[in-house]
Design goal:
The complex is a heterodimer of chains A (about 110) and B (about 100). Chain A has about 110 residues and is of the alpha+beta class. Chain A has helices spanning about 10-20, 25-40, 90-95; strands at about 5, 45-50, 55-60, 65, 75, 80-85. Chain B has a single domain, classed as Irregular (HU Protein, Chain A), CATH 4.10.520.10. Chain B has a three-stranded antiparallel sheet. Classes of the chains: A alpha+beta (about 110), B alpha+beta (about 100).
């Protein structure tokens, strides 16, 4: 299986094909979608996209880490991380597709 | 924020578009990402993050309640890695 990398170019091309706005405007709207999601997340708000998945912000407390090279202890400051939870539907879609077929028939 | 709230916010900022079109834009984007993942492709959105799939091999699991052994089938799971810029954005301002 040859794996490709999809970027903004292909996504905005899909929007262009599907919606019939200009290529420029399609690219701008893709950016606006990602922008709105980023704004909500940076406010700490979770973003739920039905049938795709949800993005949530989790706060991590301070903990002691180690520099793996020197073994030196370094404090890891409290921070916020983003977690993505795929929907059941997305998981199912992926496993029912050609990748799931690798499971081998039974 | 839900998908319909996202659509409403975008529609508000783009009054020249029909709400119907905004809806199709959002749906197309996520559908395109999902389709790419189904093919095993990676979707990289610089500054935002990257979606990819990871293979989980079949393994011998245990029912945590009874301790009985159960065969767990191999599967492919979607995975998201937050982009550097977004990761940094989550940690400025806010509750710092």
């Amino acid at each position: 299986m040859t794996e490709k990398t999809i970027t903004r170019a292909q996504l905005s091309e899909a929007v262009y094909q599907e919606v019939g706005l200009s290529r420029n405007e399609s690219a701008d709207l893709l950016e606006a979608v990602l922008g709105e999601i980023a704004v909500a997340l940076s406010r700490g708000e979770a973003v739920k996209i039905s049938s795709f998945g949800s993005f949530a912000v989790r706060s991590k407390g301070e903990r002691v880490g180690r520099n793996p090279k020197t073994g030196e202890e370094v404090p890891i400051l409290p921070r916020r991380v983003l977690v993505f939870r795929p929907s059941q539907l997305l998981k199912k879609r992926i496993n029912d597709g050609p990748l799931g077929a690798r499971k081998g028939g039974k | 924020m839900t998908k319909s709230e996202l659509i409403a916010r975008l529609a508000e900022k783009n009054p020249h578009l029909y709400q119907r079109d905004v809806e199709r834009i959002v749906t197309t984007i996520f559908d395109e990402i999902a389709t790419a993942l189904t093919r095993g492709d990676r979707v990289e959105l610089r500054g935002f993050g990257a979606f990819s799939v990871k293979r989980r091999e079949a393994r011998q699991g245990r029912n945590p309640r009874t301790g009985a052994q159960v065969a767990v089938e191999g599967k492919t799971i979607p995975f998201f890695k937050t982009g550097k810029q977004l990761r940094e954005r989550l940690n400025v301002g806010g509750d710092e």
